[in-house]
Structure formats: structure tokens, C-alpha cells
């Protein structure tokens, strides 16, 4: 009798992000496609930003999860176009971020067609406190534990928190 393998997409959707472990790669929106081509499971992922150091871990975690589920041949590919946007984070992912004490991003900035203008001035981001909900927060550092998060503090409850930056 042959063992029945689970659906490859279902397995891939359980893999968590190494930097935001409360989110799956599907929640984060970086899991682009999962399909079987000639007996090989092909998984496509997109980095949250160019040079994201977590890509190697994501790739390895996907391969290990699919191997454990019984898929012998796995090919994880990086897809760069279209570029990932924080708008791709699912509603469930946004709720998980807030429940984990991290302010989810707002709407991503509108990207112009053609070249992107360079802005050297300070970035003005806002985020409500994930602890008390107050919109009265301040940015302490543009970078936090990872380059895609900023460190903020709530002026109402005084709690520090991370905020996933809109891109």
C-alpha cells in the first residue's frame, strides 16, 4: 500500500518566518506559488526587501518541512518581480502581528511608474500602539531587530514596540 502525501501547498503554508515567528510565510505574503513539476515540488518565494538575510533560512525551512512530509524532490526559487509589498501581509497576519506586540504596517506608499524618486529627508510613519491602541506614538529608531521594523514608543502607556515599516 502506498502512503498518501499531503498537499504540498498545505505543508509550505505552515512554515513560519524566522524573524517574525508568529507569521507563516503565507501570512507574510512571501509564499508566491507551490506546484508540482515532473515529481518536483517547486516553491516560489519573494524577499521582503533586497538582501533580506532571512531568505536562506526560509528556503531551508521550506525544504525541511516538505521533506518531512514525504516530498523527496524540492526546488525553492526566488521570484523578484513584482517586488513584495507590505500590502501582501494577510489580514490574519496583521492580527497576529498586533497580538504579538508588533504594530502592523499601514497601506504601502503608492509606487510611481518608472524610476522611483530618491527622498533623503526623514520618513514620517505613524503606527498605533499594539498594547493600548493609542495613535500617539513616536519613533525611537528607524531600525529595530530587523531592517524591516522600526522601534517606537507609545506616549500614552509608555510601552516600546516594534512596527513593520510600510514598503
Task: Give an account of the 3D structure.
This protein is of the alpha/beta class. It has 2 domains: 8-78, 2-Layer Sandwich (GMP Synthetase, Chain A, domain 3), CATH 3.30.300; 101-105 and 125-167, no CATH class. The chain is 19% helix and 22% strand. The chain is built from 4 helices and 7 strands. It has helices spanning 8-12, 25-28, 55-68, 91-99, and strands at 31-37, 40-45, 74-78, 102-103, 137-141, 149-154, 160-164. It has a 4-stranded mixed sheet. A hairpin with a 7-residue loop joins strand 5 (137-141) and strand 6 (149-154). It is globular, with a radius of gyration of 18 Å. The protein starts with 7 loop residues before the first helix and ends with a strand.
Shape: globular
CATH topology of the largest domain: GMP Synthetase, Chain A, domain 3
- Which parts are unreliable, with pLDDT below 50 for 5 consecutive residues or more? none
Q: Domains counted in the coordinates: how many? A: 2
The main β sheet shows up as:
4 strands, mixed
Side-by-side strand order of the widest sheet: 4-7-6-5
Number of helices: 4
User: What's the Cα radius of gyration?
Assistant: 18 Å
Beta percentage is: 15-25%
Percentage of residues in helical conformation:
10-25%
Give the CA-CA distance, first to last residue. Answer: 50 Å
Under the CATH scheme, which architecture of the largest domain would be assigned?
A: 2-Layer Sandwich
CATH superfamily of the largest domain: Fe-S cluster assembly (FSCA)
